[in-house]
Amino acid sequence: MGTGLKNNDPVVVGAFHTALMHQGLIVLLILAVAGITLNVLHSLQLRRAAGSPDDNQPAIRAERAPEAPSRRLLRVAFGLIWILDGILQGQTSMPLGMIPQVVHPTAASSPAWVQDLVNSGATSWSFHPVQAAAAAVWIQVGIGLWLLMVPRGRWSRLGGVASVGWGLVVWVFGESFGGIFAPGLTWLFGAPGAVLFYCAAGALIALPERAWVTARLGRNVLRAMGAFFVAMAVLQAWPGRGFWSGHSASGGVGTLTGMVQQMSQVTQPRILSSWVGSFAAFDAAHGWGVNLFVVLALGLIGAAFLSGRPRAAHIGVIAAVVLCLADWVLVEDFGFFGGVGTDPNSMIPMALVCIAGYLAMTRLPAAANPAVVPIVRQPTPVGSWRERLITSPGYAFRFIAALAAMGIVLVGGVPMAVAAASPNADPILSAAVNGVPGVLNYPAPPFRLVDQNDRPVSLAGLRGKTVALTFLDPVCTFDCPIIAQEFRQADKMIGAEAKRIELVAIEINPRYTTPNYLLAFDHQEGLTGLSNWRFLTGSLAQLRPLWDSYDIEDSYAPGGAMIAHSDAVYVIGPDGRMRYVLNADPGAATSATESSFAVTLADAITSAVGGR
Amino acid sequence: MTAARSRRGTISAFVAAVPCALLAAVGLGAFPSAPAAGDALLSAPLVAAPLATSVQSAAGTWATVPMGHLNQPLNTFWQLFFRPTGTTSWSNQAEATAVATNGGLVLASAVGQPLVAGVRPSNFLHFSPLIATDDGGDSWSNGLLPEGLAASPGALSRASNGQTLALVNGGLGARVLASTGGLSSWRTLTTARRLASSGGGIACGLRALTATAAGASSAVVGASCSRPGVVGIFSEQAGGSWRLEPLALPGSLRRGRVEVLTLEQTAGGLAALLGVSEKTGTALVAAWTTGANRWIVSPVLPLASNEHLVSLGPASASGLFAVYASSSGPTRLAVIDGPSSTWHQMPSPPSGTATVAFDPTSPSTADALVVHDATMSVWTLGTASGGWMKGQVVHVALEFGSSG
Q1: Second label for A20, Cα 20 to 30 Å away, from A164, A232, B58, B274?
Q2: How many CA atoms lie within 13 A of A349 on its CB side?
Q3: Least confident of A102-106, A230-234, B318-322
């Protein structure tokens, strides 16, 4: 479902950087407009304060109680993590590397229904890699800024909801449900997926602020984490999963050792790979002891959280943070190296949720300040949102900041949504594989042959119609069937105009020149119902000069390979003159590159029909 | 109040625990337990019949072997080697196919007959081009099967009257086609579904069609049966019906499932090579008929549990050969000379032997075609030396990566 192109393909990478630059300029514009608006509102607020006749009715409203420390921790930390993720999504390898190197390997061991679901998302990304990668950058940066800049109120809670929504998209399509349906599920490697903790944090941020004024929320968060840790301990302890030994029964390495060895191969600073490699060696030698330690640690941390006692929770949080950090460094290998790392993996978010739960249980918001209206008893400041914009500086800032953040999310999301609405791939892929169509302007070499039904066809007889002409081998096993399907797709894209177009292929295999091979090919490719499709052949005496005049080379590839021939498509205008030549080599021939080439071909044909 | 809080806490912990328990259960459930032995036996293919083989034709001996990177289907290129009668030198005729041969070649011929070679489908090619020659490859004619040849060395056969039979598709979607003049016009003789629903098919518990041959007076189809001890050889009867041939295996094999690996028209009559799959391993049995409802069954050739077939085909006038090997042990060559013979082991051919070709004029001499990557070397078993001697070496300029 990828594109088959190299991650650093200069055409796609160039387009990605250009898109980021253009969208970055729009983001700067949004920020500038937000700043100016805030300045204007501030002036209005000051003017209103200066002109207020009644000292008892404050022109500028007082703020409510400070934000709960635990909520602030979640909001700021996950805001920063979303921004880091957004920056990681800006890596050069992302447009073309995300699907083959991140999404597919993650989904590969999951059940078929998970793979099908993930593939539906992967198709969208593969068809529009530039828009998708840029969207991921700006959506995540936007959500991060949203969480960071809007500390309280409904706009802040909405930021939490946005975090949950996008997090679920990433969890399902990017992380294949965190791999929970795949074999080898283990806490050590980040089950049940980093982004699920982003979602949890987002859900907590989205809670009404009154939820943070008692210890109950924190206790429940810790209990949930406690149950999670105990479940992970059971999973880790389960026999027969390869974690109890540094070596497998077949003489290979154990499950954990193998995983860590893989991580040490990722491109990264040598000192880090040396740490990870050393831990792999240690696990290979002491697999049983390592797993026993992990099982006990997870189980005890879980029990401490489940107890609901502050002292036990205090020790549990410290142990959880230490364990998470150790795992993050020695097993997850920080998570973001290698050019296609998309986030710092699960241990940091998991530790943050634990700490936030503990803080929510033990450090409640500051007691009511006489200058501050207690948030539980004080209803939301009255008045319309317009009035509040010019009476409450805090509200104005939150409102404008949230709108700006939403704008940044939309800068990435809208182009991707528009692109995804099209069933066809972006032509950038075709440009990367085949280059751009060459422009020609000379009379097309004439031909007079017979079609698959043995009826005579000549170029002169097709005058008045635009002809897309290629050369195909009816017994070819790879390129020709793909080119035929690209013709079919292009015909469909052209729609009603297709009646003014002839799709013509000329036989290129000198051994199989009779029409029955052409018909077999048409049946195989489902072309028999295409009224403007003609597959032409003739005697070798007719064909060879034609191949030469169209610069089509054929040769017997040695050793049982197909007839090697040039892959080219000529677009001939209604006046019989050559208009375009397209390199039709399908490359890796993924559905994305096929669709992209069909778009390019349809554009060239449409352009020739219009005489442009 | 405290009790109520405590109860609420317990409920919250329970509510939190449920998804976590589910997570752990899903994690554990993701590890499929090992399949029961019985299930594996039912779903596993019986005996994999290799396509590598050699056949005699009017002009000489033809052999097809896979070359290249044999663990990569798209970098495995099947070759078509030819040795003219009375010579010792092989030449490569794979170019004559003018098609990518990654899916394999199937050969059909017999002494005095032309060669017909079919190209099996691969990649996006779903039908099978055919080529034929009666002058040792000096000139070729073409044909076309509307569907893909089955992956069986017995999927193509040529009758002495010039009619060609072809087995296309696989499993229960298989069809047996008979040429109706030339190699591009075909009619359906029977289908796997039709045979499966016949009396003989029900008695056999037909799993798949595996081979076809022109018998003395009618077409014969080989099959894989799921009923133990039943041999799935069907012969065409007057009126278009099909009869399960009365072929009984030795008592020791009555509990094994039988697959017809190939059918060969030999000087001693129609020969069938049968693979019998039992819990203890695989055995080969040959059977001959002269068409008089009587089959002569050979003694059993047992294969070790770690051995697999490498090549099989016709040996001397009425004989059959089987090359088999294990990953660590020597390659072995067993030959049976005809209906009244027993299997005998020839000297072990060299490692990498893809097939052997017998000299029709001298049954005790044979060439082993030994393949390593893009090089095929010919080793000859001489009557004088009693061992294999390396001779000709053929390098094939394979274009790796050229098949997609």
Answers
A1: A164
A2: 26
A3: A102-106
Q: Are the beta carbons of B243 and B235 closer than 8 angstroms?
A: yes
* Cα gap B123→A479, rounded to integer Å: 10
d(CA B363, CA B266): 14
Query: Which residues are paired to A570 by β-bridges?
Result: A469, A581
Side chain identity, residue A103:
V
Structure tokens, B397: 């300029």
Residue with tokens 């810790």: A222
Query: Is the CB of B98 less than 8 angstroms away from the CB of A475?
Result: yes
With b for 16 or more beta-carbon neighbours within 10 A and e for fewer, the A498-520 pattern comes to: beebbbbbbbbbebbbebbbbbb
Number of Cβ within 10 Å of residue B331's Cβ equals 21
Return the residue of B nearest to A186 by Cα.
B27
In 3D, which of A347, A247, A349, A235 has the Cα closest to residue A295?
A235
Are B26 and A180 in contact (CB < 8 Å)?
A: yes
- Distance in angstroms (rounded) separating the CA atoms of residues B192 and B221: 10
User: Does the interface ipTM go beyond 0.95?
Assistant: no
Length of chain A counted residue by residue: 612
CA distance A311 to chain B (A): 17
Q: Of the candidates B199, B176, B339, B361, which has an alpha carbon nearest to the alpha carbon of residue B264?
A: B339
Neighbours of A409 (CB within 10 A): 21
Question: Is there a contact between B79 and A240 if contact means CB atoms under 8 Å apart?
Answer: no
Q: Between helices A154-169 and A393-420, what is the axis angle to 10°? A: 20
Which residue of B lies nearest to A508 if distances are taken between CA atoms? B98
**What percent of the residues of chain B are helix, what percent strand, and what percent coil, each to the nearest 5?**
15, 45, 40
Cβ-contact B254, B285 below 8 angstroms: no
Q: Which of chain A's residues have a Cβ under 8 Å away from the Cβ of B184? A: 514, 516
Q: For chain A, first and last CA: distance in Å?
A: 35
The Cα–Cα gap between B337 and B334 comes to: 10
Q: Spell out the residues 6+ positions from residue A225 whose beta carbon is closer than 8 angstroms to its own.
A: A302, A305, A320, A350, A353, A354, A357
Flag whether residue B24 sits within 8 Å of chain A, measured between CB atoms: yes
With 60 as the cut, is the pLDDT of residue A600 above it? yes
The string of pLDDT tens digits covering residues B72-128 is 988 999 999 999 998 999 999 999 999 999 999 999 987 778 999 999 999 999 999
Say if CB B377 and CB B390 are below 8 A apart: yes
Q: Which of residues 160-199 of B touch A (CB under 8 A)?
A: 184
Counted across chains A and B, CB pairs separated by less than 8 A come out at 160
Nearest to A75 by CA among A165, A168, A152, A171: A152
Helix (H) or strand (E) holding A190: none
B13, B20, B100 member nearest A231 (Cβ): B20
